[in-house]
Amino acid sequence: MTDRTLHIIGGGLAGCEAAWQAANTGARVVLHEMRPVRGTDAHATDKLAELVCSNSFRSDDWEYNAVGLLHAEMRRMGSLIMACADACQTPAGGALAVDREGFAQAVTARIEAHPAITVERGEVTAIPADWRQVIIATGPLTSPDLASAILKLTGEDVLSFFDAIAPIVHFDTIDMDVAWKQSRYDKQGPAGDNAAYVNCPMNAAQYEAFIDAVLAGPKSEFKNWEHVPYFDGCLPLEVMAERGRETPRHGPMKPVGLTNPHQPGEKPHAVVQLRQDNALGTLWNIVGFQTKLKHAAQTEVFRMIPGLEKAVFARLGGLHRNTFINSPKVLDGQLRLITDPRLRFAGQITGVEGYVESAAIGLMAGRMAAADLAEQAFPPPPPTTALGALLGHITGGHLDAGARSFQPMNINYGLLPPMDPPKRDDDGRRFQRGERGRAKKKLMSQRSLADLDAWAVGN
Questions:
Q1: Residue 136 region by backbone torsions, left for phi larger than 0, else alpha for psi between -120 and 50, else beta
Q2: What 3-state class would DSSP assign to 25?
Q3: Which of residues 321, 339, 369 is at a domain's end?
Q4: 141: closest CA among 157, 158, 154?
Q5: Which of 148, 162, 237, 440 has the lowest CB atom count within 10 Å?
Q6: Where in the sequence is the domain holding 228, given as residue range(s)?
């Protein structure tokens, strides 16, 4: 008898989204998660979809931000991950951030309650020959045995990069006589808040002393991993500083769009921002401060930040290794392994970067696998959509440039087919310098949602 079950390996965001989508379109699903039988270096619980780095899903602005557009598309596709994120959101200005514990609990509860999904706890070290449809969504922390099996299956080198974790502070240990709450440019977020960040100001002398300490502090070293590069979207703070002393001040520590109410006449030289990490507002993470500084050094160095002199840390920063496959060379347009089409890949292991992007690939992999089980076709979303553009990037967008150029990628407007920017607004006013690019993004976003809606009618 032919096994008509879809096996999904990995209970992260991509695996859970794939399971949800496949089960809701008629498939029987077994979701395999190795925790708690076997843990990882980054996870702390046995919950599905546990967030191990930031608690932010980034911008929720669908009109002018590509990740916000991806949010909107996934909501229209019935995304489990987006539904749980919306239900567990915390203040974050224009971003969508979540209570990480509540989010993992919500996803776990909905997956375990689904009548067509069975969760099996235990490590999968090889792919059984009798599994007809398989999605490998083991993410950046794939176990060594399974990684070795994947390497044999793909026939290509598995690429790797470092990803780092930012520290988390107890809110009641922040000195709010020094710090203040404000979102950059007072921008409102999904919940209508415009004071979603805690801001800690630095003058020039404080900034220079801080950078000196970051550069001089002892770092964790991983001698066996020295050849592994960093992903530019998640650089450790000290690596940014090594690339130039002003780099952090033009990155996570930029002071623009903020006014210190304690000293309104004095512009900060740099600002450290903290973002709410849980629904209670008791924990806040230091934005962009992922680091490989040793724990003792982190406590000492980060307490140099004005307002954090007496900070108590709920979690200190860390570093872990991420793994991804050479997707453009080994996967087809349906995310199937060319050498063994019963196998699909989803999530970060395919070479997308970011929570939402990982879940988006899981969404499509789940729909595609369910269609295969039902012996039906599932055409990919149009390339004018964020979903379609992301899929195109990992399944062929870099073939012409050569596989060596393939690197983890966030969704961005550069992946979508271009449009000519408008010259005038709806009232006939000619756009000023800088306005045309913003208007172009809005047009591209409107096109994406319209094309997704038209495509979804038959899918």
A1: beta
A2: coil
A3: 321
A4: 158
A5: 148
A6: 165-321
